[in-house]
Amino acid sequence: MERLEIQRAEKEKLQKLEAKDLERRNGELEELYLLEACFPEAEKLKRDSRLLSQWKHYIQCDGSPDPSISQEINTFISLWKEETNETFEAVTAKSKLVLNLIEKLKLILLETPSYDLQEKNIIQYQGSILELQELLHLKFNIATEILLRQASTLADLDSGNMEKVIRDENVTVYVWANLKKNPRYRSIRFSETQTGFEIPRILATSDIALRLLHTRYDHVTPLGPVPTASQEHTSAVTYFGKDEVKSVEAAVSKDLQEEYKEQENESNSVHEEETKVDEQGGIEGQTSSVQEESEATKYELEMKLLSETVSAAQLLLLENASEKPYFFEENEVDLCQFTALGGVHHLDILELPPQCKPRKGWMIVEILKEGLQKYTYPPETAEDFETENTFPPIEVMLEVHENVLFFENPMVARWDAEGKHWKTDGISNVSYKSEDRLITFSLDTFGPVTLIQDAHVNMPYQSWELRPLDVNKVLLTVTTVFTEIQIQIKENLCMLASIKLNNQKHSSILEEKWMTPVSFIIALKEAGLNIFPTGHSHFYVVINYKLPLVEVKAYRQMALLSSAFAFGWSKWNTVCNSDKVVFQVREHLPKEEPIQNPNWTLLMFNGDRAQSLKINESSDAFSEALKEETEFHSTLYHMVKDFASKEAMKKVRCSSCQFVDSVCHMLLSTRLLSYS
Asked: Which residue ranges does the record assign to the CASC1 C-terminal domain (predicted)?
């Protein structure tokens, strides 16, 4: 009986708390709505920034084209096509501008929200990217031909063959010309490098040149699809906006007319001279007042529409694909599962062009109309030869770029030009020396090759923490099986603070470099530090699935509170249902001294209700029991407000909208609550 009485009392208490929560729900949600106005405000600032960058480019007048304007970029491409006989030095110098233009176009496609992108613009930008990529590679081929024509004049005194290495921050070119055709000279090593080839006898006696063009960038992998808002949704939003604005304008116009009439009626009872003065002043004042109200209403409406659009776009970021990509060919690389790292190594066997010959103080050279020609190896018709013995695979040694991290031995993939995808067949005897950062493999036929790694090697995460550092500045720490990554976020910028491998600090070129969130995510992925799941990642990683709407609401409110509260991983998040998330939270003012054993509070949130849990991280079993002397709340903001200091809540309300938006973007991109 006593136990039943206790249960009844607890049930009554719970019902009272639920009723209290329901009673104040509307008020709490209204306050949260006002706080979350920072998201549309941040988006408006980003729009203004994009427009400002176009204006800044226009007034710079530095001669470089604006890649977003088709006339300018087309003129640039046409003029560069007309430039002939450019050397490697000239092309590498020009490539800096070209790569910058490509980068700008890619960022426009990634940073511009889908609801602001039109289909024709996407086609235009992607077309310009492909044209620039193809033209840049063509220019490198022409420069190679010019260099090989002079091979005899650049020959090495010891070997009699030409060897040339040209280095640049974006490109390294290794060229070897077989001038002597010595059958014993089959081991090629470029001076001061570990890069080289082991060629078969048939190539050692042929008029050929070998070229390895290592680009730090990847212009071979096809461009990924750009997410766009559905035409119906966009038009609905557009028309909804127009109709609303028109109705507001009509209402305001009607109010103005009525007020003018009232003013005229009142003025009839006063003397004419006084009436004129009073009427004029009154109408002017009333007109300006109503106009101000009209502008305010329009702005409020604009922000409301933008708020809804931003929320929808954020939800779209967490949308999981319903079907796994299907691949038709065997050995085809699944680019949803794997990622290419370290750029592309373009391996080519070339026919040696006619050499320059000195004649009476002149240099005479025969220029072939067809230009630089590739040497087919093995030949398409090899009936008279024993193919396996005469045309064996070529051994290749490549240096792995120092700025790229491989957590497992890299795999080698070759480009299939016909199928337009990466494949792993035709490659054998792969060996990787991690200490020397040297990879060796045998290749049946030459062509572009790249190194690939599992894109999800650092997923799921083992733990995470989001901690305030200063005003509008936080530190996000993500711990995986192989590494610990620390990211600083301030205002609208992100920076890699540190990386740890096997509990030891690892230096990276990205450290201390502040970037916008989108640029930062790209840079981290290219360095092999991928902690950013995609819509297909759940097919390759065992995840702790949470409802996207619950996740979005949690991340938005965590970002709002991040100026004064630390958040951390909880083991109970994997135990609770998919419609709830559990994490740790504590007040953490930036000037506080680090605490050895901080007192964390466990919060559970389902998107509509937040509560403190009675259990802690060291409890034996999971329970949704409410912590004593606490209440239910409709938002995380009001939940933490119950135990927070006034100073902490003041910091929260004073947070910059761009800072909150950047923190939210990083949380949405890492999906800590689903991938931990």
From this structure: 420-587
